[in-house]
Write a structure and sequence with these properties.
Blueprint (H helix, E strand, L loop, with lengths): L2 H26 L7 H23 E2 L2 E3 L2 H19 L9 H17 L6 E2 L3 H35 L6 H4 L3 H29 L10 H23 L3 H22 L6
Antiparallel strand pairs: 1-2, 2-3
């Protein structure tokens, strides 16, 4: 299970991600007809081949290789998979115009840049911590893409442009409700990550004195506060978009600083 085994699958996934993502972007710009079934199908086939790459590069006889590139590729794979599957039930397919090209870039980085070969075996509790962290990051990534689309809707409405992207996306109220749902699910898994990290990660002190613990709690407060203020103070529009992106930036900072979603 080497890089040479993974390369053909990575190239196929890369092509499928770019094709479906760019196609959806053209739909938003009203330069192409919407074909959500075909876009979703291409993306899901891409995640299948991307999953094979992850298996080759991350897993080996019960040990996991979770360097920064491998972890980032895993997050992008799960984010894309969640987005496309969820789009079967709620109108989230527009976010693929942002997330599919991003997944392609992350996958390209994994196959072009030097790979980590640090395989480790993690206890069950730490694996739960890692899984919660990755799921939280993936949901917040989708929320960030959703927030960007909402920002475009508000900008179009403010400028009086009622054609183009406004005609393609669902109503603004529904887009905001979807954003809240994504943030709510993300908070659940972020809570699991924080609690499991406090219990099972020996580098995660009970008094939350480390920088990643403080940032984790800060992200939790930002997202929870946003939902509370939306519920009781009616926060919407730019306020919701800005605070969503600030919270995601904190999560991204945790990922970069720890090289693995709260786990060193």
């Amino acid at each position: 299970m080497t890089f040479s085994h993974a390369l053909p699958f990575a190239l196929i996934a890369l092509l499928l991600y770019l094709t479906s993502g760019i196609w959806q972007a053209c739909v938003l710009m009203r330069t192409s007809e919407p074909h959500p079934v075909l876009i979703r199908t291409l993306g899901l086939v891409g995640t299948f081949f991307h999953g094979i790459v992850i298996y080759f590069m991350v897993y080996h006889h019960g040990f996991l290789n979770l360097g920064i590139l491998e972890a980032l590729s895993l997050v992008c794979w799960l984010t894309t998979l969640l987005l496309l599957l969820t789009s079967l039930f709620v109108p989230l397919i527009a976010a693929s115009s942002v997330l599919l090209p991003l997944s392609a870039i992350c996958l390209l980085a994994q196959i072009v840049l030097p790979a980590s070969l640090n395989y480790s075996q993690y206890p069950t509790g730490v694996l739960a911590h890692i899984a919660g962290s990755i799921l939280a990051f993936s949901l917040f990534a989708i929320a960030a893409a959703q927030a960007c689309l909402i920002a475009l809707q508000y900008r179009a409405l403010k400028s009086g442009k009622f054609r183009g992207i406004i005609q393609v996306l669902p109503p603004l109220t529904r887009m905001e409700n979807l954003l809240s749902a994504l943030l709510g699910l993300g908070i659940i898994f972020l809570t699991i990550a924080i609690l499991s990290g406090a219990v099972f990660d020996p580098d995660f002190p009970g008094h939350f004195s480390t920088s990643k613990a403080v940032l984790s709690l800060l992200a939790w407060v930002i997202f929870a506060g946003l939902l509370i203020w939306r519920r009781y103070k009616g926060w919407r529009g730019r306020q919701a978009v800005y605070w969503t992106l600030i919270g995601v930036a904190v999560i991204l900072l945790i990922f970069i600083s720890s090289q693995l979603l709260f786990v060193q």
